[in-house]
């Protein structure tokens, strides 16, 4: 797919009802009809209808039983016809693998080792593999999706753990059912030894220096590129400027610290590169739609089962 400098890149807050994991069917949100990217992982499960999915540089056909895996920042579009039934699952890398230190931006370019991070294997192979669930296994697929939809509606204590388990079952089950073609695609991918790793070096530097100053020139030096070349390459590959990408990573780090530590807001601001707490709070609200303090309180309530983030329509039906 031809990359466009004006292609939209979506954050989870713009296309999902929760900031960590979300699942919805075709009735919940209007589908996008133009090529776009998103910062998070996405899985599209087609249950009825046929369409063409343009993903990266590939054109894939989808029909009932097709499961499509979309990497973060991968350009794609799939316009489903009227009457089609499908489910869209969105989630962050931190939700999938809380222990991962990888940056989603560099997954495509890191030639990631699927044996070390097997959950992303189908995402790496999507442009050359059509992942299918056969007719005899459709009851399993419907049951797994229904379990996720139900748990996502309820959002109580331990829901994140349950949703992660269902998600892993879905990914693992689809990979098992397509193991031969997936293995062949990953072998071919590993054979490509000339892929540039400039983006990996840039994202690694960002992660290392989230709490301090980082200029475009510093990142360009790490990538062995000129500042102008790097700025153009980042915009082409991600739809984001260097400053926007750095701010996104600082916001994600702040989100993690709010959820997992007892640090004061001033300390979190300094740990994520902001010297002014008020400015940090404004940027956090712009990014997530809620203040840092309110976000922490909501997270504490969700952990105890007393509340939930941005609840979706409780009347959303199951898909079986």
Short description:
The protein is an alpha+beta fold and 320 residues long.
Structure description:
The chain is an alpha+beta fold and 320 residues long. The chain folds into 2 domains: 8-191, Sandwich (Jelly Rolls), CATH 2.60.120.280; 207-303, Orthogonal Bundle (Arc Repressor Mutant, subunit A). Helices cover 45% and strands 13% of the residues. The protein contains 13 helices and 9 strands. It has helices at residues 12-15, 93-96, 121-125, 138-154, 159-177, 179-191, 198-208, 216-223, 227-238, 242-260, 265-271, 277-288, 292-303, and strands spanning 8-10, 21-25, 36-38, 41-48, 51-55, 58-62, 67-70, 76-78, 85-91. The strands form 3 sheets. It has a 4-stranded antiparallel β-sheet. The longest helix has 19 residues, at 159-177. It is globular. It starts with 7 loop residues before the first strand and ends in a 17-residue tail after the last helix. This is AraC family transcriptional regulator. It holds the Pfam family AraC_binding. Keywords: Activator, DNA-binding, Transcription, Transcription regulation. GO terms for molecular function: DNA-binding transcription factor activity; sequence-specific DNA binding. Residues 200-298 form the HTH araC/xylS-type domain.
């Amino acid at each position: 797919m031809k990359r466009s400098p004006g292609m939209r890149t979506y954050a989870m807050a713009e296309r999902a009802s929760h900031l960590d994991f979300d699942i919805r069917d075709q009735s919940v949100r209007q589908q996008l009809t133009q090529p776009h990217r998103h910062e998070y992982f996405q899985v599209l499960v087609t249950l009825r209808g046929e369409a063409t999915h343009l993903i990266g540089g590939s054109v894939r056909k989808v029909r009932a039983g097709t499961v499509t895996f979309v990497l973060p920042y991968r350009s794609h579009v799939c316009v489903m016809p009227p009457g089609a039934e499908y489910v869209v699952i969105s989630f962050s890398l931190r939700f999938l693998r809380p222990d991962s230190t990888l940056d989603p931006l560099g997954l495509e370019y890191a030639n990631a080792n699927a044996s070390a991070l097997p959950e992303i294997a189908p995402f790496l192979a999507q442009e050359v593999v059509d992942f299918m669930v056969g007719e005899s296994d459709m009851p399993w697929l419907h049951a797994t999706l229904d379990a996720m939809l139900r748990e996502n509606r309820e959002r109580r204590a331990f829901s994140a753990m349950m949703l992660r388990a269902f998600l892993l079952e879905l990914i693992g089950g689809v990979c098992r059912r397509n193991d031969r073609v997936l293995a062949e695609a990953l072998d071919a991918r590993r054979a490509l030894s000339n892929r540039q790793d400039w983006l990996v070096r840039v994202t690694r530097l960002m992660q290392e220096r989230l709490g301090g100053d980082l200029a475009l020139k510093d990142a360009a030096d790490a990538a062995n590129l000129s500042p102008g070349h790097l700025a153009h390459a980042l915009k082409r590959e991600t739809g984001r400027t260097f400053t926007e990408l750095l701010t996104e990573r600082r916001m994600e780090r702040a989100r993690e610290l709010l959820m997992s530590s007892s640090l004061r807001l001033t300390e979190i601001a300094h740990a994520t590169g902001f010297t002014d707490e008020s400015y940090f709070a404004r940027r956090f609200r712009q990014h997530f739609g809620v203040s840092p303090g309110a976000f922490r309180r909501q997270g504490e309530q969700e952990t105890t089962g007393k509340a939930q983030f941005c609840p979706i329509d409780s009347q959303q039906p199951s898909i079986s």
